[in-house]
Sequence to fold (151 residues):
Amino acid sequence: MSLVIMVVACRRAGDASAHATSTSSAAAISPADSAALARDAWSIPEIIRRVREAGLALTDSGETVRRPGLHQTGHVLHLGQGTLTVFIYPGRGARIRDAAGLDTTLHGMPTLDTPHYILSGNLIAILVTPNDATVERVTNALTARHTLGPP
Fold:
């Protein structure tokens, strides 16, 4: 993990403007989010930031939910006509174990309330929206961060 942090730091050191931006951004990040970012883990503010950067309005409802088969509490976020329920795990391994029990198969024809599952790092996200373009944009926003292999 420290190797990843060093690689990121070295890349930014070569670009003075990126270094200045990361320094000012780091001051605005809470300690909990800073720790999550350092270990490449998702947090609610990071999810909201990434989806908003994709051009979508996302708000935290403050609601939490439980889902059978998942060991973490879900946080409900509102997204236009839909909802994005996110389950954040302490690590990728715990997320993989829980995700193995999910039935992500589409049964029958898709409907307005068909769930779309997004698995990324330590995150299971369940998106329910009638808009296919929204599904694509949210999926891209939440998976792009974890598509690169090790440095």
About this structure: Residues 1-27, 147-151 have pLDDT under 50 and may be disordered. The first helix runs from residue 2 to 13. Strands lie at 58-65, 74-79, 82-88, 115-120, 123-128. Residues 43 and 57 are 17 Å apart (CA to CA).
